[in-house]
């Protein structure tokens, strides 16, 4: 038997995945071209504007930066803000190919 | 020790709030409710009531303050009337949906356009479907007592309660009112415990976007969707009937005054016709019933005290054997009939009760309704029913042609 929700008003707790895998809302997927990405090219922590601007906080500022596609909603802000134009928004169907 | 004072309905409401040791009051003035919070603000200013009195720029903000304060565990109160209540409408839904035990005194007043400051019940009746419990008081003592009961009910079932009483007819009319002993009220009304404790150790987001279907959260618990939450509110209101009746009974035991649970009867046992009403109009109906009895018509009264949740079972019981029902009310559901009339008919559906029922729309915008006019209306209806007219809507004392 499934545990019933015992809350009488709606609430949620701040936790990864609390609202489900919101990445499935995505129509377009950000794809990073490592040959253009500044942090990748310089091979050191640099730029990270994608990490800074991501409204979902799902870009990890590593070398290279990584986008958690489980929760990326495909808004395209990272692609818009990337000064090296290293991120392209690719329509989902094309990513699968 | 209790003491009896001569006071208005608004003062009675204020005393009820003080006795309940309400912690946060927010209000915006509007006739005829203004003196309630005016009185309270003086007590807060003088330190006689230890509470936060929050002044805001509109009734909408009033209810948001009440929602916020109640969420973090404060006992909260406001009062308003007419356009003020309607300006709160959105937040009335929000308070009920958040299951907050806010108590609001609605001092009933007509709604514009055109402007009226005078009494009818169109304001609170139009907020019937917000998820608030609605209690209608018939005299000033009942206002004070119902406010105390309202907090007990609200904090037990986690639903907001509107204590409604007629503007001017009660709000500005003085009557003897017994103020119960504060310590005894304290024993009757335990401290408010919020259903959800907000704490930095256990952070949570209140009222996030809820999707049509249920949602599995990060811990794997299946959380309610919007509709499941709505059912819980409906279930709570349906279930609040027993609590309302029990609280009324316990209040009567402790304080010696029984205002009825969901509804009350007056000389109904042997009646051949029952007058039905809410608030001061029902009080007036008791005088009309006496007049009718003097002229040989065995009349009684059923006063609807709690309008939401609707006293379905009690209405069925009350009208089981009665040959005629006459419903008087100070509201109109435009394009249909009086809201109370429609609800009573709905409650009788399927019971086999086929009693003729006449509906009188009365006293809109403060038009005076006298006991002898109610009695005359009943006489006219009985003659009409005898002539086979089972259903009728009449606007009392109104130019209708």
Report on the architecture of this protein.
The complex is a heterodimer of chains A (97) and B (401). Chain A has a domain at 35-96: Alpha-Beta Plaits (2-Layer Sandwich), CATH 3.30.70. Chain A is 21% helix and 16% strand. Chain A has helices spanning 38-42, 49-53, 77-81, 92-96, and strands spanning 11-12, 28-32, 59-60, 66-67, 87-91. In chain A, a hairpin with a 5-residue loop joins strand 3 (59-60) and strand 4 (66-67). The radius of gyration of chain A is 16 Å and the shape is elongated. The model of chain A has no long low-confidence stretch (mean pLDDT 91). With 401 residues, chain B is α/β, with parallel strands linked by helices. In chain B, helix 1 crosses helix 2 (34-45) and helix 7 (140-157) crosses helix 9. The radius of gyration of chain B is 21 Å and the shape is globular. The chains are: A alpha+beta (97), B alpha/beta (401).
Brief overview, please?
By secondary structure, chain A is an alpha+beta fold. Helix content of chain A is 21%, strand content 16%.
Largest sheet of chain A: 2 strands, antiparallel
Which band does the percent of strand residues of chain B land in?
15-25%
Please give the order of strands in the largest beta sheet of chain B: 3-2-4-5-7-6-15
| Quantity of strands of chain B, as a count | 18
H/I helix tally of chain B? 13
Per CATH, which architecture of the domain at 35-96 in chain A? Answer: 2-Layer Sandwich
The N- and C-terminal alpha carbons of chain B lie at a distance of 57 Å
What value does the Rg of chain B take, in angstroms? 21 Å
Helix/strand/pairing category of chain A? alpha+beta
Fill in the CATH topology of the domain at 35-96 in chain A: Alpha-Beta Plaits
Percent of residues in helices of chain A comes to: 10-25%
Question: How do the helices and strands line up, and which of them pair or pack?
Answer:
The complex is a heterodimer of chains A (97) and B (401).
Chain A: E1 11-12, E2 28-32, H1 38-42, H2 49-53, E3 59-60, E4 66-67, H3 77-81, E5 87-91, H4 92-96
Antiparallel strand pairs in A: 2-5, 3-4
Chain B: E1 3-7, H1 9-19, E2 24-27, H2 34-45, E3 52-55, H3 59-71, E4 76-80, H4 82-87, H5 89-97, E5 103-108, H6 122-125, E6 133-136, H7 140-157, E7 161-166, E8 175-179, H8 182-188, E9 205-206, E10 215-216, E11 222-223, H9 226-255, E12 263-266, E13 273-277, H10 280-294, E14 299-304, E15 306-308, H11 312-318, E16 325-329, H12 339-348, E17 357-361, H13 371-386, E18 391-395
Parallel strand pairs in B: 2-3, 2-4, 4-5, 5-7, 6-7, 13-14, 13-16, 16-17, 17-18
Antiparallel strand pairs in B: 1-8, 6-15, 10-11, 12-14
């Amino acid at each position: 038997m499934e545990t019933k929700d015992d809350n009488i008003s709606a609430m949620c707790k701040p936790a990864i995945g609390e609202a489900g895998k919101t990445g499935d809302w995505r129509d377009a997927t950000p794809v990073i071209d490592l040959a253009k990405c500044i942090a990748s090219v310089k091979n050191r922590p640099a730029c990270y504007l994608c990490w800074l601007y991501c409204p979902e906080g799902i870009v990890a500022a590593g070398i290279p930066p990584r986008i958690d596609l489980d929760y990326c909603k495909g808004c395209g802000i990272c692609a818009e803000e990337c000064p090296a134009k290293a991120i392209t928004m690719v329509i989902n169907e094309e990513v699968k190919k | 020790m209790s003491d009896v004072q001569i006071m208005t309905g608004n003062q009675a409401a204020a005393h009820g709030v003080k006795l309940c040791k309400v912690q946060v009051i927010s209000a915006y003035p509007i006739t005829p409710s203004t003196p309630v919070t005016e009185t309270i603000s003086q007590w807060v200013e003088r330190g006689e009531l230890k509470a936060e009195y929050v002044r805001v720029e509109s009734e909408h903000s009033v209810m948001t303050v009440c929602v916020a304060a109640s969420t973090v565990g404060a006992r909260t109160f406001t009062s308003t009337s007419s356009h003020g209540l309607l300006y709160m409408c959105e937040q009335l839904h929000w308070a009920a949906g958040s299951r907050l035990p806010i108590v609001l005194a609605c001092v009933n007043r007509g709604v514009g356009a055109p402007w009226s400051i005078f009494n009818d019940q169109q304001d609170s009746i139009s907020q019937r479907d917000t998820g608030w419990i609605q209690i209608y008081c018939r005299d000033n003592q009942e206002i004070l007592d119902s406010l105390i009961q309202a907090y007990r009910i609200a904090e037990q079932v986690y639903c907001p309660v509107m204590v409604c009483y007629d503007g001017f007819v009660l709000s500005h009319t003085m009557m003897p009112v017994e103020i119960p002993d504060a310590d005894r009220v304290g024993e009757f009304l335990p401290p408010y415990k919020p259903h959800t404790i907000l704490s930095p150790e256990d952070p949570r987001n209140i009222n996030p976007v809820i999707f049509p279907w249920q949602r599995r959260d990060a811990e794997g618990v299946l959380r309610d969707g919007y509709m499941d939450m709505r059912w819980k509110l409906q279930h709570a209101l349906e279930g609040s009937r027993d609590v309302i009746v029990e609280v009324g009974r316990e209040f009567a035991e402790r304080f010696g005054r029984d205002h009825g649970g969901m509804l009350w009867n007056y000389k109904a046992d042997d009646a051949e016709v029952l007058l039905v009403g809410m608030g001061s109009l029902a009080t007036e109906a008791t005088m009309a019933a006496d007049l009718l009895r003097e002229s040989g018509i065995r009349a009684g009264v059923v006063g609807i005290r709690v309008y939401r949740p609707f006293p379905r079972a009690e209405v069925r019981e009350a009208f089981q054997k009665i040959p005629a029902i006459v419903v008087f009310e100070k509201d109109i559901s435009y394009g249909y009939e009086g809201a109370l009339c429609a609800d009573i008919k709905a409650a009788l559906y399927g019971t086999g009760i086929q009693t003729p029922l006449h509906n009188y729309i009365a006293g809109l915008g403060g038009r005076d309704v006298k006991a002898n006019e109610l009695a005359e209306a009943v006489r006219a209806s009985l003659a009409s029913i005898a002539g086979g007219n089972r259903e009728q809507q009449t606007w009392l004392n109104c130019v209708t042609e």
